[in-house]
C-alpha cells in the first residue's frame, strides 16, 4: 500500500518528463498490458456487472435466480429505509457510523505515532517497518486475538484482580469490542500515508514560524496540519472504503449482535440464499461509496484551488 | 523537550497496542493446558496436535499451493502491466490505472460475492457440476495481487530510468531480448518482493476465499474461521502461530530484498 504514494509521485514527476523526452522512441509495446487487463475485465468488471444485473432479478425456488429486470429489490430497500421500522436503515446507518468513527479513531491514534516517527526518531525505517508488519499478517488472526485479550478471564486481569471489573464492562461481544478491533486492524493503513506526508514535510518551516512568534499549537495548526493534509486524506480513504464492507470483526468480536452492510450482504448469500437482494444491497453500498468519493474529490479540488 | 518525551512514551504504548494481541496468540499457542486462558506450563504439544490433524495439514498445503500459483501468475501479469503502463498514451493509461486501483480499493466483500455469482453462473453455462474449488480461489486472488505486483514493479521501473532500455532498443534488440538482458536483471528484486507480498496476501486472505471456495477446498484461514465458532482453542492458536511465522518470513525476505537492491543503487529509503 505504501507503494501508492510513491508511484503516484513518480508518475506525476519523473515519468512525465521522460515520456516527453522519449516520445516516439522505441519502448515496451502497449499490448503487454493485455493479459492483466483481460484478467481484470473478465474476473473483476464482468463479475461486478453480474451483480448489477442480478440485483434486478428475483429468487425462484430454493436459490435460483430469475432475471426479471424488476426494481423490486430496490423498492423493497427504499420502502424500508423511509419506512417506520427501518431495519435496513438502521444497518446502513450503523455502517456509516462504523466507517466514520473507525476512520477518526485510527487518525487520532495514528497521527501522534506518525508525528513521532517522521522527524524525530533515529531508526525511522525500522519504526515504520514495525508499523507495517502487523498489516501484512493475517487480518483474521489479528481480529480473533482480541477474543483472548478482551476476555475477562485473561490471565493478566486475573493476576491484577480485575476480572470482575472487566466482566462488568461487558466489552467482548459488544459494539465496543467491534470499535477496538477496527481501530487495531486498520491503524497501519492510516499511519503509512500520514508518515509519508510528514516525512516529506520541511520541518524548518515549523521552527521558522515559532521563531517568528507562533506558539507551538499555532505553528502546528498553521504549518504542520495543512502540510499533513494529503496524508490525512489518503489515510482516511484507505480506512474508510474497506470499512464500508467490514465483515470479519463484527462477526468475531461483536458476536453478530450489531449488523453492518457487509454482514447483511454475506447473510443474503450464505444463509437466506437471496442473491438478488444481496446484490442490490452491494450495489447500494457501491453507489453510496461512489457518491461519497465524488463529493470528496470535488471538495479536494476546491480546496486545492483556494489553498493555492 | 517534554513534548518529545511524551510523544516517545506514546509511541511505545502504540507499539505495545500493535504487537501485544499478536504476541498473546503466539504465547498461548505454547500453553500446555487444554483451556486457552489458563496457563499450565510451556509445551509445544498443540503444534504437534495441529500438525497431526489432517484437516489442518491439508488446508495448509492447499493454502501454500494456491498462494504460490497466485504469486507466479500475479508476477507475470503485474510485471507485463508495469512495463506497458509508464509509456502508454494518457487516454489509455488513465482507465487501465483506474481499473488496477479499483481492484485494490473495492470493499472485499463486494468483490467476493461478485466473483461467487460469476463463477457459479459461468459454471452453469459451461455445464460444470461443481464450479467452485481451489481454481476459483486462485483466479480471484490474482485479480488484486496482479495490481499489488504492478504497483511495486512500476514504482521501481519508473524511478530507475529507462536509458538502458532505450539504448538496447536503439541497438536493435527486440522487447524480449531487452527484457531478458537489460530490464529483468534490474527489476528482479522488485518482482521478487511483489511476488512475496502477493504470496502472503493470498495465504492470509479469508473473505474472497470464503465465498468462492468449494466444498472440498478449505484454505487455512477458512479452517480457522470455522473452528472459531466453537471458541478459541490452543490448537487454533498453534495453527495461527504457524501462519504468522510463514507470513513473517515472506514479508521480511521481501523487505530485505528490496532494501538491499535499493541500497546498492543509491542508499535511499525503501519504497515498501
How many strands, what sense, and barrel or not for the largest sheet of chain A? Answer: 2 strands, antiparallel
Shape assignment of chain A: globular
| Percentage of residues in strands of chain B | under 5%
Q: DSSP strand (E) fraction of chain A?
A: under 5%
Count of discrete alpha- or pi-helical segments spanning 4 or more residues of chain A = 14
| Inertia-based shape of chain B | globular
Strand tally of chain B, please? Answer: 0
Helix amount of chain B, in percent?
over 70%
- CATH superfamily grouping of the domain at 97-307 in chain A: MetI-like
Low-confidence stretches of chain A: 1-23
Radius of gyration of chain A, rounded? 24 Å
Known CATH architecture of chain B: Orthogonal Bundle
- If you average the pLDDT of chain B, what whole number results? 90
Structural class of chain A: mainly alpha
How many whole angstroms does the radius of gyration of chain B measure? Answer: 22 Å
CATH-scheme architecture of the domain at 97-307 in chain A:
Orthogonal Bundle
Written account of the structure:
The complex is a heterodimer of chains A (308) and B (272). Chain A contains 14 helices and two strands, in the order ααββαααααααααααα. Chain A is mostly helical and 308 residues long. Chain A has a two-stranded antiparallel sheet. In chain A, helix 5 runs antiparallel to helix 9, helix 6 packs across helix 9 and helix 10 runs antiparallel to helix 11. Chain B has a single domain, classed as MetI-like fold (Orthogonal Bundle), CATH 1.10.3720. Classes of the chains: A mainly alpha (308), B mainly alpha (272).
